[in-house]
Amino acid sequence: GLTRLDHVGIACRDLDASIAFYRRTYGFEVEHEEVNEEQGVREAMLRINGTDDGGATYLQLLEPTRDDSPVAKFLERNGEGVHHIAFGTSDVARSAEGIGARGVRVLNPEPRTGTAGSRIVFLHPKDNGGVLTELVQTAH
Length: 140
Ligand code: CMX
Ligand code: CO
Hints:
binds cobalt (II) ion; 22% helix; 3 helices; eight-stranded mixed sheet; binds carboxymethyldethia coenzyme *A; alpha+beta; 2,3-Dihydroxybiphenyl 1,2-Dioxygenase, domain 1
């Protein structure tokens, strides 16, 4: 099942400026930074809290790496802001299959690679009350 809120994804135009904002305003620090070419993002994970199941909750700051990426398209339409939410699961393919069977469009039934080698699936925002929703299974 879905065990926790893994992260909230926030679209930004300038990753370094966004990181600096969260550091000086809230005191959050970057735990992990990477480029994911498949998703078209440069991203940073800021840990908000730990949990006793070994997971944690993060802010995921997302800057587009190319003009045709989902985050670039989102910024063009909406400007900076909340882009998606992500729930943690111990079995992403199985969770996606179950949710898909309840009538939600699964954007990529074959999980893709997310932050730090995690496996991720996206669910269509139009079937989730306007919220782009991600399922994530951490690598460890
Ligand atoms: N949140 C809510 N609604 C969104 C949205 C978002 N992030 N992105 C698009 N939409 C809405 C659009 O506004 C549009 O609504 P209207 O029809 O009312 O205008 C509708 O969804 C469909 O838009 P579309 O033009 O058909 O689709 P897009 O080309 O904008 O693609 C989506 C939307 C969700 C299918 C695409 O962004 C996608 O596949 N996302 C998954 C991958 C991703 O987002 N990767 C980046 C994050 C990586 C990570 O978290 O690691
Ligand atoms: Co995400």
